[in-house]
Write a structure and sequence with these properties.
The complex is a heterodimer of chains A (288) and B (182).
Chain A (H helix, E strand, L loop, with lengths): L6 E3 L4 H9 L5 E4 L5 H6 L7 E4 L9 E4 L2 E5 L4 H5 L2 H6 L2 H7 L4 H6 L2 H7 L6 H7 L3 E6 L2 E6 H4 E3 L2 E2 L6 E8 L4 E10 L6 E11 L5 E9 L6 E2 L1 H7 L6 H8 L16 H22 L2
Parallel strand pairs in A: 1-3, 2-3
Antiparallel strand pairs in A: 4-5, 5-10, 6-7, 6-10, 8-9, 11-12, 12-13, 13-14
Chain B lengths: L1 E8 L3 H8 L2 H7 L3 E8 L2 E10 L2 E15 L3 E10 L2 E13 L4 E12 L1 H30 L11 H26 L1
Antiparallel strand pairs in B: 1-7, 2-3, 3-4, 4-5, 5-6, 6-7
The chains are: A alpha+beta (288), B alpha+beta (182).
């Protein structure tokens, strides 16, 4: 329960943080909310030599509108996202997703950037940013680059972040027109992690048919993924029960589902099918 | 925990089999393998630095090849332990010549215990799948080269990263030194 010895640096700016990370690419680790890294360190499953604490960089924590985009700083906490009146109005998927994470203590410390960069197979944020087709802004020693959320998650706990890079900002195109959001989750009773979590971002045409759907799935595969087959199957339909049922049957296509003591792969896929249907129906009912 | 899967390799079955029983090749293919030594006929001692993301651990153990029927079948029995936990188990590999190369089917049963099993249970299978894919991808590249040719550069990306990180380190340390002078 006591981690191995490590150094701790709390830089005041992002540039300093990037330089510190570059000083020890193998041994340094970014610390944000610490709700995945610190437990792993206490169990000595992770033994970084140096922690670079970016949670104290004030300029990394914000939620704001800019043009047709919503910008979210990487160290914005789950609680800040959950309680943001702006987001409740213009992008309700984010507060709804935040509300389902862990408990109050976790939400007060844990950050959206930390969750995305850690890429836990059962983390909630990856599903939400996939459904919203977000862009992730990464900054490293060679400057800044932007990556689509869809390309970012590579494998179990593995992302396209290069050594030395830090996730700086999440950029989401402001939902417009007739849209409805829903996050539907089956939490693990002990940990609160998603056994399955389904994020839906639905846009309707004026006649009520489906214009487009963004669907992010977490908990099912080794990484969160976009259910593109379900999205395409929904587009253009009237979103009646038959159309939804036909579309959600593709939720696990091409996926080798996780299996653990709590839920077999088969059961997970079943849950995913049921909860994708419910999430789509909930999103549809919320369209204004 | 049951492990099961198939991988298609673009190489002849005889060649793939030879790769599977050659310690040097195995050491290059097993993700994070730092040492693999023959200790007796068909028995090897290995040190593997395995991990995903920030979760890492060093495992020491032995691997024994059994039931060898060249070039179609072999069985691997492993037993290892390290700081994060222990694992032991065995797996059967079947090699089948196909039109495009070799199809490897594996079925294994592995027991994992210790810290890694109690807290990482939900991720062990995913981690095993990931390492198996890395292993068979490297093995496929190895088997494609003819005997005597230099080994393929599947470690190229890693080498490139290390090289780049070395340059960065130097760059930043000179910058620091310059700043200090000012």
């Amino acid at each position: 329960m006591i981690p191995t010895q490590f150094d701790y640096k709390a830089p005041a700016t992002l540039d300093e943080a990037v330089a510190l990370l570059a000083s020890d690419l193998d041994g340094a680790k970014v610390l944000a909310g610490g709700h995945s890294l610190i437990p792993a360190m206490k169990l000595r499953l992770a033994q970084p030599q140096l922690l670079v604490d970016i949670a104290r960089i004030k300029s990394l924590s914000y939620i704001r509108e800019e043009g047709d985009q919503i910008l979210i700083g990487a160290t914005t906490t789950h609680y800040q996202l959950e309680s943001s009146d702006l987001l409740k109005q213009i992008c309700p998927l984010l507060p709804e997703c935040a509300k389902s994470i862990g408990d109050v203590q976790v939400r007060n410390k844990g950050t959206i950037g930390g969750s995305i960069a850690h890429s836990d197979p059962a983390g909630d944020w990856p599903a939400a940013v996939l459904a919203l087709d977000a862009d992730l802004v990464l900054v490293g020693p060679n400057g800044e680059r932007t990556e689509k959320a869809e390309d970012f998650f590579v494998d179990l706990l593995t992302t396209n972040l290069l050594p030395g890079e830090i996730l700086r900002e999440i950029r989401i195109k402001k939902p417009s027109g007739r849209f409805g959001h829903a996050y539907q989750k089956v939490p693990h009773p002990a940990s609160g992690f998603a056994v399955v979590g389904i994020a839906v971002n639905l846009t309707l045409n004026n006649d009520g048919s489906c214009k487009s759907a963004g669907i992010g799935v977490t908990g099912v595969d080794v990484k969160a993924y976009r259910a593109t087959l379900v999205e395409t199957a929904l587009a253009g339909t009237s979103l009646d029960d038959n159309a939804i049922a036909a579309a959600v049957s593709h939720i696990c296509d091409g996926v080798d589902p996780n299996s653990d003591l709590y839920a077999s792969g088969e059961y997970r896929c079943h849950l995913a099918t049921v909860h994708t249907r419910r999430a789509i129906q909930a999103a549809k009912a919320r369209v204004q | 925990m049951k492990l099961e899967g198939t991988h298609e390799l673009d190489a002849l079955r005889e060649r793939v089999y030879q790769c599977l029983v050659t310690p040097e090749v195995l050491q290059r293919c097993i993700p994070g393998c730092e040492k693999l030594e023959k200790t007796a006929e068909n028995t090897f001692a290995a040190t593997i630095r395995a991990g995903v993301g920030s979760i890492k651990g060093v495992f020491n153990g032995t691997a024994r090849l059994e039931d060898m029927r060249e070039p179609e079948h072999l069985r691997i029995v492993v037993d290892g332990k390290g700081q994060p936990g222990f694992l032991k188990g065995s797996g059967d590999l079947d090699l089948e010549q196909t039109a495009n190369g070799t199809k490897i089917s594996y079925v294994g049963d592995v027991q994992v215990g210790g810290t890694i099993a109690s807290v990482g249970q939900r991720m062990i299978q995913g981690a095993a799948k990931m390492m198996a894919t890395q292993f068979f991808t490297s093995l496929g590249a190895e088997a494609k080269t003819a005997v005597g040719e230099p080994p393929p550069q599947h470690g190229f990306f890693r080498t490139a990263l290390r090289w780049a990180s070395g340059i960065l380190k130097r760059l930043f340390s000179t910058q620091k030194a310059q700043k200090a002078q000012k």
